[in-house]
Recover the amino acids of this structure.
């Protein structure tokens, strides 16, 4: 498609699919022309309606600034010890059994525990998170219906009230305290933040860790290099982000008529940046279908680009780096169980597998 139809229009849903790196980057970079206030009109993904993901400037900047402090590389680096102890505990649970499911035993629980701790969610409630997070990402309620998640909203509203009465040293209490233009956030705005962090941080990071193991299993040479030189792990994580991008696409709405890649786009039409395709664009990455843990430069779009660039990127990178480092330290010769077929996740937005026994 990048060569034959780099911009592809489907009249049925008035949507342009953008496949090349150059145009995908332009779409993500130009929030004045390509709006993120996109889901309200379509009535989808309701729990995320009030989140910064769906805001344009100037509102976006005001709200994003409330949480940036919690996610700067410096703030996140302080979580390293805690993340190390969570990963150590998760690996202790499977050590000695000879086998583990990378997803169930490590890649799924790790980001849930980290984000739940950041938000201040009680430990006993964390099991609820998976169902909610999956349901929001997949836009379904488990019975195939596209609908909001009242149980999740009610739950967060209840925790918000508890923190309101009794603030703790957690992100939820900090958000309750924060002000935009002299006003505290409304309950719906707070809810938007909680749900965004829950959804944006979980399945994405799970997929990144799972995809990393998948790539390394396919490329035993790369795995060997990481065993020998763990300092190559951060570069390898970047290459996994490019080669098997956990988030495959993200959409915008054109606010005015414009020309993109020689195509005339009309105001009101939807424009989808295909991140996964852009990250394999031969015009940007030499030999793009080669998984190369030493690739440099590696300016992939896996965390987006421009004002909506992923807030959780430092956290996702750190969690994945620690998970891989401790896995390789603890287990020699990690190999996928080939008899178990790989099953892709439910969502077309995401790239990852449901299980990865090794
Ligand atoms: C935004 C990917 C992990 C929080 C984004 C965007 C992408 C992305 C592509 C931009 C969407 C757009 O422009 O429409 C990923 C990937 C992750 C990951 C691949 C893991 C490998 C996380 C984590 C968190 C997080 C761990 C937080 C705990 C956010 C937030 C936004 C965002 C809050 C919205 C930023 C804004 O609108 O200004 N992410 N993400 N993400 N991500 Fe992530």
């Amino acid at each position: 498609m990048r060569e034959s139809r780099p911009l592809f229009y489907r009249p049925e849903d008035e949507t342009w699919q953008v496949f090349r790196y150059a145009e995908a980057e332009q779409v993500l970079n130009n929030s004045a022309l390509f709006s993120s206030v996109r889901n309200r009109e379509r009535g989808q993904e309701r729990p995320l309606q009030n989140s910064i993901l769906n805001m344009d400037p100037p509102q976006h900047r005001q709200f994003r600034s409330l949480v940036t402090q919690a996610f700067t590389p410096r703030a996140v680096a302080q979580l390293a010890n805690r993340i190390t102890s969570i990963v150590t505990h998760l690996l202790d649970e499977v050590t000695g059994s000879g086998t583990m499911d990378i997803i169930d035993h490590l890649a799924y629980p790790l980001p849930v525990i980290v984000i739940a701790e950041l938000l201040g969610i009680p430990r006993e409630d964390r099991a609820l998170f998976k169902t909610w997070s999956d349901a929001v990402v997949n836009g379904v309620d488990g019975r195939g219906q596209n609908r909001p998640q009242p149980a999740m909203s009610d739950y967060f509203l209840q925790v918000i009230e508890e923190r309101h009465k009794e603030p703790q040293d957690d992100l939820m209490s900090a958000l309750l305290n924060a002000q935009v233009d002299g006003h505290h956030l409304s309950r719906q705005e707070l809810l938007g933040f909680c749900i965004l962090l829950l959804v944006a941080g979980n399945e994405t990071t799970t997929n990144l860790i799972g995809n990393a193991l998948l790539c390394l299993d396919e490329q035993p040479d790369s795995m060997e290099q990481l065993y020998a030189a763990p300092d190559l792990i951060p570069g390898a994580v970047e290459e996994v982000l490019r080669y098997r991008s956990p988030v495959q696409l993200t959409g915008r709405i054109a606010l005015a008529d414009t020309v993109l890649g020689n195509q005339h786009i009309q105001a009101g039409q939807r424009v989808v940046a295909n991140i996964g395709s852009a990250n394999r664009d031969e015009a940007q990455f030499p030999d793009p279908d080669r998984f190369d843990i030493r690739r440099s430069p590696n300016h992939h779009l896996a965390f987006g680009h421009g004002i909506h660039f992923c807030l959780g990127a430092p956290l996702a990178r750190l969690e994945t780096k620690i998970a891989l480092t401790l896995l390789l330290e603890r287990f020699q010769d990690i190999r996928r169980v080939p008899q178990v077929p790989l099953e892709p996740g439910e969502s077309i937005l995401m790239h990852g597998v449901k299980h990865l026994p090794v």
